[in-house]
Amino acid sequence: MRRPPGLAAGFVQVLRTADFLRLWIGQVVSMLGDRLDQMGIVALYVAVGYRSVTGVLAVLAIAPQLAVSMIAGHVIDRYDRRWVLIASDALRATLVLMLPLAFRVYGTSGVYAVVLAVGTATAFFTPAKSSIIPRLVTTEALPAANGLSVISNILATLIGSFIGVHLAHDLGVDHGKPPTPFFMIDAATYVVSAFLVWRIVADLRPGGGQEQAPRRRLASLRRFLASNPEIYGMLGAAVLFWAAAAVVYSAINSFAYVRFHRGITGIGNMQASLGVGMLLGAFLAGRDHRRSFAAAVWPLMLGTSIALWTLDYAARWGLALISVVAVGVFAAWLIILVDTELQRATPDALRGRIFGLKQQLTAVAFIIPGIAFHYDSGIDHDLPRLLLVSLSVLALAALVFMVRAAWQALEQARRADWGAPWLNRLDGLNRILCKRLHGLEVEGLALPPSGGLLLAANHISGLDPMILIASVNRPLRFLIAEDEFERWWLKWLFRAMGCIPVRTGHSQHVFTAAKRALEAGEVVALFPEGGIHRPGQFGHLKRGVALMAEQTGAPVFAAHITGVRGAGLKIPAVFLPDRVRVRGFPGLPYRDQGITPFLDEIARRLDGHVP
Predict the structure, then answer these.
(1) DSSP 3-state of 557
(2) Which domains occur in the chain, in start order?
(3) Alpha helix positions (H), 137-176
(4) C-alpha–C-alpha distance, residues 25 and 36, integer Å
(5) How confident is the model at residue 592 (pLDDT cuts 50, 70, 90)?
(6) pLDDT for residue 6
């Protein structure tokens, strides 16, 4: 299998894609415009002596996502996404040019209205951008592309805020000079973004331009969600993360100011640490993980939970900053993972609505706690407990995803269909155990995919049945001694596997049950030695295997087992690491050559004497 490119190589490969480079630069410029908006509004308020409303503006910018995200998804999935992006940028450019007039004529209400309108346009831009990235890069490059998207978001936020403050000050906006030049520069960023999107060559129409009736499109989304429950897991992970993020964002500000008495500088250092962590996380997440979503997400959730626990109980400023950096690393990685897996799992014609739904759910998860904290006068006192609740929920979610990942790993590892999901998972677990702990290697044991047959093997330990099960791709019905079958703690499993108990003096019953299984096309497995014999102490074969082959016509496939460290032992052999080898032989039919010669030939194979 081709190895995925390294971290830096992955980013370079994506940036060499001309269309993605245009989209990415447009995104960076557009996000710079978003930050310029906020800094320009702050400068307007400072000029007239108003209180800063940065927090309110942030809520107003996100609030439209609650109302229009699903509408935006429908639009994105119905019309050319290129023009959705261009229209969003054009509308934002027009709106920011109106900001000075709106503030002069309508005051705060006018500004709030414009910010809501800009947020509405952004609610169309963001899911449209996420929907077209898979059209511009390969599937393997999606993590790097999404990583660059997150990196640009963080850098645009930091750089845009810095540029916006100084540009507004240099143009005198905060001292009452005409703000129009500043907002013209702001509007120009959206124009540049629209131009770059217009220059994209790829076809960005939903589904490659194949139109569908609106009613059928709605039904297809419902069917898609119903048939792909893993999408709910991805959306649920995003919601849990953003709900916890609302608590974390309030906590880092509160801890810096209240617990560590660092003032406004401490808040800035906390947020800068979060940004540094997110940059590092976005860089690390840029490599294709090639694992299932559940297997990839639970370590991130658990890591976030541990980092939050450390932050919650940190008594030193340095440890708190390190914890915040770790939170940022896991947060960015999780954001990129969710977007990447949603892009991979969702058909192109449905991506707009899926990302619109994600945007709406995450906005609810982030805004509602934020608003509640804003009006809670005792929030600084309650935040440590709320942070503990958040990290506990994330840890519980990590456990759920870990179990899900384990189920998926077992299902992928299994090779035989035992007729019940739990037995199939046990089959997968057994194969993983035999491969990882016992280093199982199989040579020449190829059973036909159907038809009744007998599988005979030498018997050197209690591990042998597990080794045989892991060596073939069909369920096995073992002949097993009655005293072993009746063990209370294993009897339920032997029954479920269809094992046939061998009772002394009831050979006819055993033959009848085995014959029925063979006639039904099943594989009957047995150890003809009748008990465990150490290597070099090969036992005399029982006649039953030859009689069953004679009476049913089923061929006998022989397997020679070696390398078991716990040879001669039963239960301990299962847990001792070793390197087991199984050598298989072609099926041996009974051809009236006589019971004894037939048994002799099987014995030579089981003892490994056949070249």
Answers:
(1) strand
(2) 1-201 (1.20.1250.20), 215-413 (1.20.1250.20), 421-606 (3.40.1130.10)
(3) 142-170
(4) 17
(5) confident
(6) 55
* H/E segment holding residue 481: strand 476-481
Give pLDDT tens digits for 545-565: 999 999 899 999 999 999 999
283, containing H or E segment: helix 263-284
Q: Residue holding tokens 């591990």?
A: 463
> Over the stretch 172-215, which tens digit does the pLDDT of each residue have?
887 788 888 888 888 899 999 999 999 998 988 887 644 444 44
Residue 553 · residue 589 · CB < 8 Å: yes
Structure tokens at 196: 């770059």
CA distances from 347 to 77, 206, 223, 611 (A): 11, 10, 12, 54
Mean pLDDT across 339-350: 92
For 464, the token pair is: 């042998």
Rounded distance, CA 224 to CA 209, Å? 20
Sequence-ordered list of residues with C-beta below 8 angstroms from that of 181, at least 6 positions apart, any chain: 171
Place of tokens 């770790």: 326
Q: Dig out the tokens for 68 from the structure.
A: 């229009």
DSSP, collapsed to helix, strand or coil, labels residue 501 as strand
Catalogue the E-assigned strands of 182-232.
none
- Please give the average per-residue pLDDT across 327-338, as a whole number: 94
